[in-house]
């Protein structure tokens, strides 16, 4: 039982806040003796053992973790923050969150503003692979990069196998008989987008060395997916399938196709990447690569706590492997209604 017990369980049974449990277990003075004894008794009864890294972190300065993301809008970032927050609350820690909307100057400013206010940083940034950017803005704070490719081998980075996931999706579309497969790309200078584009190109060329990749620009937003869908419909020869670099753009494409009376998947198959919660509830439901986005955030947070505690985390930096989820938007007619589809 002990391995599954969290600080929230102790707080609930002791009828106090998570912060009070944290203070009681760490010997802080601002807890009455009666409350401290009750918390310790409940912790002993539940055999609760605080995360060794969280205990180390809570004994230091601010009890706050900084999170710097490209944006806070959309289901991907909502799920990512949910995972980060779950671990933070279990450990009695606070979060200081900022976004930079794709502007490196704003991101650098956000990182510098967190100095002295946080004990560690979680950073998602296409600029984080730049050594000058790292040295100028991350300072000496413990940091974990999420979905970034650092050129500094000492920098801790953790993310998704975007390349392998994109290859798996293209191979699925090829196996369904599609040959003209268009790709709606993500924003330039974004590591996720770059790896997904690379996976698309390599899978297409591996199947047919003479294949011409068909790439339409996008920016991970629904509006860019809608514009890409309209552009593809206006082409002299339409694609047989469209693979969007994320689900939000795929949903934008789906809307454009629906407006034009183009049936998915009868006339054009469609697929995305991420498996945001909305993907299964649209009509037709969206084929996608499932990423456990909340677990991505939670795992990055746990790794950061271990980095802060001086633990060797290299073995924990294996990329999350996405799972192919086949739904109605890419199924051949003969396969529709088969069992096992989500």
From TrEMBL:
Keywords: DNA-binding, Repressor, Transcription, Transcription regulation. InterPro entries: HTH_LacI (IPR000843), LacI/GalR-like_sensor (IPR046335), Lambda_DNA-bd_dom_sf (IPR010982), Peripla_BP_I (IPR028082). One of its GO terms (molecular function) is DNA binding. It comes from the Bacteria. SMART domains: HTH_LACI. Residues 5-59 form the HTH lacI-type domain. This is LacI family DNA-binding transcriptional regulator. It comes from Lysobacter hankyongensis.
């Amino acid at each position: 039982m002990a391995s599954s017990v969290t600080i929230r369980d102790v707080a609930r049974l002791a009828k106090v806040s998570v912060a009070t449990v944290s203070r009681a277990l760490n010997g802080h003075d601002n807890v009455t003796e009666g409350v401290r004894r009750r918390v310790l008794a409940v912790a002993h009864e539940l055999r609760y053992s605080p995360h060794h890294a969280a205990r180390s972190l809570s004994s230091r300065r601010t009890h706050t973790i900084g999170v710097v993301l490209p944006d806070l809008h959309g289901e991907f970032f909502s799920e990512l923050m949910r995972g980060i927050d779950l671990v933070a609350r279990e450990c009695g820690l606070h979060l200081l969150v900022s976004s930079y909307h794709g502007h490196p100057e704003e991101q650098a400013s956000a990182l510098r503003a967190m100095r002295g206010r946080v004990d560690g940083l979680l950073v998602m940034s296409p600029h984080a692979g730049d050594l000058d950017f790292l040295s100028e803005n991350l300072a000496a704070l413990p940091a974990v990069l999420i979905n970034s490719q650092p050129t500094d081998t000492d920098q801790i980075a953790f993310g998704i196998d975007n390349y392998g996931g994109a290859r798996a999706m293209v191979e699925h579309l090829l196996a369904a008989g599609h040959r003209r497969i268009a790709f709606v790309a993500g924003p330039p200078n974004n590591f996720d987008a770059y790896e997904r584009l690379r996976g698309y190109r390599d899978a297409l060329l591996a199947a047919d060395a003479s294949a011409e990749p068909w790439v339409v620009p996008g920016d991970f937003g629904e509006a860019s997916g809608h514009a890409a869908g309209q552009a593809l419909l206006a082409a002299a020869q339409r694609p047989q399938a469209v693979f969007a670099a994320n689900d939000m753009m795929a949903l934008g494409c789906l809307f454009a196709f629906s407006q034009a009376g183009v049936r998915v998947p009868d006339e054009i198959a469609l697929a995305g990447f991420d498996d945001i919660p909305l993907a299964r509830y649209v009509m037709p439901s969206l084929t996608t690569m499932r990423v456990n986005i909340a677990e991505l955030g939670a795992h990055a947070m746990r790794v950061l706590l271990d980095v802060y505690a001086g633990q060797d985390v290299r073995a924990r930096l294996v990329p999350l492997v996405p799972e192919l989820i086949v739904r109605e938007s890419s199924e051949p007619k003969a396969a529709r209604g088969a069992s096992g589809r989500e």
